[in-house]
Amino acid sequence: MAIIDSQVHSYEANTPKRPWHSVPNWPDHVTGDEMVAAMDTVGVDGAIFISAFSMYRYERELCSASANGSSRPLALVKPVDPDDPAVADVIADWKKTPGTVGIRIMMTKEARSGSPR
């Protein structure tokens, strides 16, 4: 039986090149290669990589880069902003990314602030 981790995040260290939006209580970095090595250690066969929203907001590059070149099943999920006027185009573009299996609709305080309750 294959073991698939349903939600993993990979991310680089907090640097000016790739600054974090906020600093969670997580390790300093977990690159895609480091995540795959950790999966090997515990016998995980595949994973769903989800872009770390708390760190990178709606960015997708690191999420898709984490899965590139891996020989194991790695699926990708990207957070999207439902209030972005171009959200349909963002989703259509993301759909073309190899390994994509879905999106994650992020309902942030910022998104709700302009909407009546």
Summarize the helices and strands and which ones pair or pack.
Layout: E1 4-8, H1 32-42, E2 46-50, H2 53-56, H3 61-67, E3 74-80, H4 87-95, E4 100-105, H5 109-113
Parallel strand pairs: 1-2, 2-3, 3-4
Structure description:
Helices cover 31% and strands 20% of the residues. The protein is built from 5 helices and 4 strands. A 4-stranded parallel beta sheet has the order 1-2-3-4. The model has no long low-confidence stretch (mean pLDDT 81).
Distance between the amino and carboxyl termini: 46 Å
- Number of beta-strand segments: 4
| Major sheet size, sense and barrel closure | 4 strands, parallel
Oligomer designation = single chain
Task: Give the topology string: H per helix, E per strand.
Answer: EHEHHEHEH
User: Percent range for helical residues?
Assistant: 25-40%
Overall SS class? alpha/beta
Task: Enumerate how many helices there are, as a single number.
Answer: 5
Mean pLDDT: 81
The proportion of residues in beta strands is: 15-25%
What tags apply to this protein structure?
single chain; globular; 117 residues; four-stranded parallel β-sheet; alpha/beta; 4 strands
Q: Gist?
A:
The chain is 31% helix and 20% strand.
